[in-house]
Amino acid sequence: MSLGARAQSRVRAARGPGLDPARIPHPSTKAQTAPPLERLLKQRLVIPELCVQVVNGGYTSWSSWGTCSVTCASGIWTRSRSCSNPAPQHKGADCTSLGAATETSSCNTGIMCPSEYARMLILMLIVDKS
Questions:
Q1: DSSP 8-state code for residue 76
Q2: What is the rounded (10 degree) CA torsion for 57, 61, 67, 68?
Q3: Phi, psi at residue 13, to the nearest 5°?
Q4: What UniProt keywords apply to this chain's record, in alphabetical order (predicted)?
Q5: Which residue of 8, 12, 32, 99 is most buried, as measured by CB atoms within 10 A?
Q6: Which of 6, 44, 49 is nearest to 24 (CA)?
Q7: How far apart are the first and last CA of the chain?
Q8: What are 76's strand-pairing partners?
């Protein structure tokens, strides 16, 4: 098979949906090497098979404060947020550098606990007798 016949068969084989025979290099031309990946990335060319977008995580809004940890006297309540707005992807940073995922605060129910109430009554009786 001659060089011309090889080139023609290559063109014929390349015909099909989405293929342009004019873009196939002739065998007599120098083969061009593909540019290095670093250069492609610097030029911001998108090659879905090779490039993915790094996504750093972000927190959601804070949840509402939960219920107080006690039913009388003082306790603690908590609220939280999650690292899913957006979630980290493709080796993106998690949310640790953005602060804590939970927050606590003291709460006071305004109700005296029975043991404190009993102690106070005893003290009142002692003071009242004196």
A1: E
A2: 80
A3: -70, -25
A4: Disulfide bond, Repeat, Secreted, Signal
A5: 8
A6: 6
A7: 125
A8: 106
pTM greater than the 0.85 cutoff: no
How many residues make up the chain in this entry?
130
In terms of DSSP bridges, do strands 102-108 and 74-80 run parallel, antiparallel, or are they unpaired? Answer: antiparallel
One-letter identity of residue 22: A
In whole angstroms, what is the distance from residue 63 CA to residue 90 CA?
A: 27
Closest CA to 92 of 37, 61, 43, 52: 52
Q: Which of 62, 54, 63, 52 is nearest to 86 (CA)?
A: 54
Residue pLDDT, tens place only, 52-101: 888 999 999 999 999 999 998 899 999 999 999 999 998 899 999 999 99
Tens digits of residue pLDDT in 26-45: 555 555 565 666 665 666 55
